[in-house]
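Risk register update: the risk of archive-format incompatibility is retired. Evidence:
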Amino acid sequence: MSPTNPALSPAALSHILDALESVSPATVKALSEATGLGQTTISRAAALGISRGALAHQRSSDPISGRPCRVLVPAKGLLLPVLTLTRGYGSVRVVDTELNPVGTAVTELDPTAPPEEAARLLARRCLTLVRGLGSAGSVTAPVLLVGQGLSADILREAVTDTLGVQPLAVMRHAEAVARAVTVRNFTPNAASLLFVSVGEDAHAFLLLRDGEGRWVPSSLGENLTPALCRTLRGTAPSAEGIRRGTAVFLTELCRFIRPDRIEIEDPRGVFPDGGVLASLLPSGVEAEVVSNRDGLTVAEEGAALTGRRMLWEKVLGKDIGRK
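Archived output:
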């Protein structure tokens, strides 16, 4: 049981935190319906979160009745950096607790340099960026997104040495995307999902649902990112080239794997509408272009969600287990 509130169990609080990530507006009634917990339990959890500085109440209007109501939202004042590091590319996105980007730094890296040097350079860029944000909020430890083929342990150590604090988490793109897709509740009836990103940092992997309905990366998709990158490198670096390369990749892949759904992240806008995308795919294969949230890639969103959840759990009590 929670040491601060014996009537609120860690399992119940974890359910409520899960619901807070996807229920909108997050009224006591809506959270109760989403979790199956009583409204009294929800109110106790809200009081605990507010007293610890993790959550806050905000005035709003009921979307159906239009009546004034109070909704539970993440407390303001914390900034979470997300560092993305791949071979030759790095970025820093600083977001607030509602996942709104408040600062961005992007840099090209020397792909021949040791990865730990690139990690230290990116961490220094992070320091410069957060100093420039002034009094926008208190900066937490970062979440580090690590590209394929890079050592998470080496990069964690390099970032820790530079920032003086360990990252909250070190994640692979597949893990971070799975987290974001689970919270967004993409294609609730699908059991398998192929995620393809054709942005500056192209990647692809297969996600499967586990027994609790969460998306998890499948080992069958471990080699999809290198295959996508090889295909895209073989086409012209234009919108038409990216469309053609993506079509070739998907056509070849669908000969062996038939996912229930294909989601394509297109931050460069090379697929102007669904009809263009459908014309490039094998017959009978459904696909949709993913919308990015306020400039965040899906992987960055998943990393930020993970970091925020870890902060919530740290603030609300170490004995709170994830669902």
